[in-house]
Amino acid sequence: MVKYFESNTVFHFTWEQVAQGFWKRYPNPESQHVLSEDTVYREVKDNKLISKRLLTKTNRPPKWGERFISARTVRIVEESIVDLKQKTLTTYTRNIGYASVMTAVEKVVYKPSEENPDWTVATRSAWVDSNVFGFGRAIQAFGMERMKKNCQKMVVGFNYVLNSMFPKAQTGEHGPTTGSSNVNMSSVQTGKEKLKDAAKKASDLAKAKAESLYASASCQPSQSS
């Protein structure tokens, strides 16, 4: 029987911020298991950004699983659709390495929270299956636990990236929006001061070189991974 689970995660950032940060979520302190990421396909079709990326992650099987899996890395295909009109970011991931031993498929939909429009809800669905005779259930259980642990790391790491990209989003009329229940206000103030200082330096440099460093600033999802 296929192992299946669902979960919802609330990111205390707007959908536009989450959609932009999605492309820059690696590296982060929780992503040591992600070794590389490469964009292999990208196009805009019907006002939707469609992308396909290839991720390489570490793959440390338990002792009993070494008879089936010898490599320490696995390739993952990540397909995504960004719909600006509907404000949804939908991702599909699946392993292409060792698929004969175990298949793991995950779907995540990011969309604005109905509770708070300044927040984003990620609805995750995951399936794990294995047809290895005599070991199928054990492999499924292992794969599901691995996916859950990686999901927890993803949430922590993604929040780290979002907080780094959008420090001003840490306060707002709807309350703390850092993706964490504990907000260090001194850190918020420090972040604002750093932004002001960086902006001043950028302005001075722009005047000196007669360039506009902010011409490329955009709220659209980044086109590079």
Automatic annotation (TrEMBL):
Domain of life: Eukaryota
Region (Disordered), start-end ranges: 171-201
InterPro entries assigned: PRELI/MSF1_dom, Slowmo/Ups
Residue ranges constituting the PRELI/MSF1 domain according to the UniProt record: 2-170
Residue stretches of biased makeup (Basic and acidic residues): 191-201
Biased segments, Polar residues type: 177-190
Pfam family, one: PRELI
One Gene Ontology cellular component: mitochondrial intermembrane space
PANTHER family the record matches: MSF1/PX19 RELATED (PTHR11158)
Protein name: PRELI/MSF1 domain-containing protein
Organism the protein comes from: Laodelphax striatellus
